[in-house]
Structure to design on (281 residues):
């Protein structure tokens, strides 16, 4: 069971559909004004994970809730930050990232979950992406498949430094992104990814990184593993091959760790930029 108290759960920002009538918003899907969005954005897929990030911010408010994209803005250690949960898959993530960018965001960190592909990686472990294998279809109209989906160096460095200072030794390397969760078994494909050293597989990071390249955003991603190399050795009763995101204590500890790492990494990026040392933008 989760170690979060009932009181903590009741204090989470509510996920409510926004009343957008009578207001002319500048974007079609994210119903928010530019001053409500920070340049520093987290883009988890999971709405509950988005809530968990938001509840770690001070003075947090829900600024948009439309088309299953729940947006909260607050401050972390004095830095204004925004959280937008994108839902599952590249197409919706692309809409969220594009519109957040048009509202003024330029730095994005995905805080996701993923299935491990390498021996020794366990449920709750943390991985940081340097690049993503492009098995998704959302970005094929933007840049051709030979173009690499690569993380921003400075965001990746901030994530790595934050992880190590927290006492975490994360996995660092290439991840795979795909559009299909319930894909037909393909042992040759799985073996190719594993033999190439791919750390894990998920659904949105190739989209994030390609948009970063195309739109000149700074983008990075980290993940908590919800399956291990030998399947899910869950710490609660489960017959599924992956961890229960609401109840598996190993996964929940890893998720909480990933959120803390991401928040501190984003703060570092903001402080670095404010000192006039930023390389990008």
């Amino acid at each position: 069971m989760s170690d979060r108290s009932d009181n903590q759960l009741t204090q989470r920002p509510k996920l409510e559909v926004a009343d957008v009538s009578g207001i002319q918003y500048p974007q079609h899907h994210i119903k928010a004004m530019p001053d409500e969005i920070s340049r520093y954005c987290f883009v988890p897929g999971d709405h509950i994970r988005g809530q968990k990030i938001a509840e770690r911010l001070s003075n947090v408010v829900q600024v948009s809730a439309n088309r299953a994209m729940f947006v909260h803005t607050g401050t972390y250690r004095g830095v204004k930050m925004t959280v937008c949960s994108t839902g599952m898959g590249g197409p919706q993530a692309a809409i969220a990232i594009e519109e957040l960018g048009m509202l003024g965001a330029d730095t994005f960190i995905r805080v996701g979950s993923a299935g491990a592909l390498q021996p020794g990686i366990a449920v709750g472990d943390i991985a940081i992406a340097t690049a993503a294998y492009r098995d998704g279809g959302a970005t094929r109209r933007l840049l051709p498949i030979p173009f690499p989906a690569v993380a921003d160096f400075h965001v990746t460095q901030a994530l790595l430094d934050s992880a190590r200072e927290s006492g975490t030794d994360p996995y660092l390397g290439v991840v795979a992104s795909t559009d299909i969760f319930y894909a037909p078994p393909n042992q040759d494909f799985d073996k190719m990814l594993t033999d190439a050293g791919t750390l894990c597989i998920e659904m949105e990071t190739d989209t994030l990184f390609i948009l970063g390249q195309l739109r000149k955003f700074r983008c990075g991603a980290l993940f908590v593993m919800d399956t291990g190399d030998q399947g899910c050795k869950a710490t609660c009763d489960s017959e599924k091959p992956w961890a229960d995101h609401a109840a598996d204590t190993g996964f929940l500890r890893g998720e909480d760790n990933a959120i803390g790492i991401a928040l501190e990494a984003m703060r570092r990026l903001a402080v670095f930029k404010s000192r006039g040392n930023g390389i990008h933008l």
